[in-house]
Amino acid sequence: MQYQAEVIIELKAGMLDPEGTTVKRALEHLGYEADSVRTAKKYTIVLQASDIHSARENVEEMCQKLIANPIIHNYSISLREIE
Amino acid sequence: MSIAVVQFGGSNCDLDIMHVLKDVMGVDAELVWYKEENLDRFDGVVIPGGFSYGDYLRAGAIAARTPIMNSVKKQADAGKPVIGICNGFQVLTESGLLAGALTTNSYPKFRCEPAYLRVETTDTPFTSMFHKGEILSIPIAHMEGNYYADEPTLASLEKNDQVVFRYVDRNGNATDEANPNGSRENIAGIVSKRKNVLGMMPHPERASEEVLGSADGLRVFRSMLEYISNR
């Protein structure tokens, strides 16, 4: 089966996010108000797996070994089967 | 005695390190491509600065997972000295050889300028030729040099005397103004628990000849060579 995983990598709460802070400031220059702006990265991964559980296990391992740095990041994974 | 200088795609301080080791110090050194899997023939390893793999994913993240890093770990486990400078420091934290992480500068800009550093410990293979508390001038050149570690990790670095350099002002005070990137506790360089792996954001190879304005960095390499000779 083929699955598509969307992985979102975010800085942990409390970590400085200078890019988010800069965007927030730019929004304020345009007259918008925002209490906070945080950035994140999204990876879309298409993979083969026997079922959705093993697909999740696989992507989980990819996050832990490479895509996220557990010292500074949280990550979330959403998975769906594709044609 | 021979030193390995590791080259990744995107390393760009490799030849500066070679110049300091070979031309300035007269030491045998060899450039080693990241596909090499065996560094046993070397007495020490330098991971130079640059932008390995375009800083894709995170600075140092891809390089940290290349074949050569298994052997770098093996050399570190054997007690040989390993230095990572700038991007090399990022590679060492990403590979787990050093604690913490290097994140985007608190003011998100590439900063390339001289920096004052205070020597926090001389009890490492890389700082034996300094005095504790000595103020050095060694340049920085980075955008992801903001050293981060959680409180327990910071406490254990302090307790084990693993903080090697701190950013200070010219009088030696570790102020916020003297901190170029937002690093926790003004940390500019740390060693591993065993002290034979050093990571530092400033570039000692760019301050190794008086003609460049400072030769303070040379003693990092001279200390390392002395340590190797005495092993």
Would you kindly provide a written description of the structure presented here, covering whatever features stand out?
The complex is a heterodimer of chains A (83) and B (231). Chain A is of the alpha+beta class and 83 residues long. Chain A has one domain: Mth169, Chain: A, CATH 3.30.1280.10. Chain A is 34% helix and 35% strand. Chain A contains two helices and three strands. In chain A, strands 2-1-3 form a three-stranded antiparallel beta sheet, with helices on one face. The longest helix of chain A has 16 residues. Chain B is an alpha/beta fold and 231 residues long. Chain B has a single domain, classed as Class I glutamine amidotransferase (GATase) domain (Rossmann fold, 3-Layer(aba) Sandwich), CATH 3.40.50.880. Chain B has a nine-stranded mixed beta sheet with strand order 2-1-3-4-11-10-9-6-7, with helices on both faces. In chain B, strands 5-8 form a two-stranded antiparallel sheet. In chain B, helix 2 links the parallel strand 3 and strand 4.
Describe the SSE topology.
The complex is a heterodimer of chains A (83) and B (231).
Chain A: E1 2-11, H1 18-29, E2 40-48, H2 52-67, E3 73-82
Antiparallel strand pairs in A: 1-2, 1-3
Chain B: E1 2-7, H1 14-24, E2 28-33, E3 44-47, H2 67-77, E4 82-85, H3 87-94, E5 101-103, E6 111-119, E7 135-142, E8 146-148, H4 151-159, E9 163-168, E10 187-191, E11 197-200, H5 218-230
Parallel strand pairs in B: 1-2, 1-3, 3-4, 4-11
Antiparallel strand pairs in B: 5-8, 6-7, 6-9, 9-10, 10-11
State the main characteristics.
heterodimer, A: 83 residues, alpha+beta, Mth169, Chain: A, 35% strand, B: 231 residues, alpha/beta, Rossmann fold, 9-stranded mixed β-sheet, two-stranded antiparallel sheet, globular
Biggest β-sheet of chain A, characterized? 3 strands, antiparallel
Class based on secondary structure composition and strand pairing of chain B = alpha/beta
Q: Approximately what portion of the residues of chain B adopt beta-strand conformation?
A: 25-35%
The level 1 CATH classification of chain B is Alpha Beta
Element order, helices and strands of chain B? EHEEHEHEEEEHEEEH
**Average pLDDT level of chain A:** 96
As for the number of domains of chain A, it is: 1
What letter string, H or E per element, gives the SSE order of chain A?
A: EHEHE
CATH H-level superfamily of chain A: Phosphoribosylformylglycinamidine synthase subunit PurS
Low-confidence stretches of chain A: none
Overall morphology of chain A: elongated
Walk across the major sheet of chain A and give the strand order: 2-1-3
CATH class of chain A: Alpha Beta
> What CATH architecture of chain B do you see?
3-Layer(aba) Sandwich
Count of discrete structural domains of chain B: 1
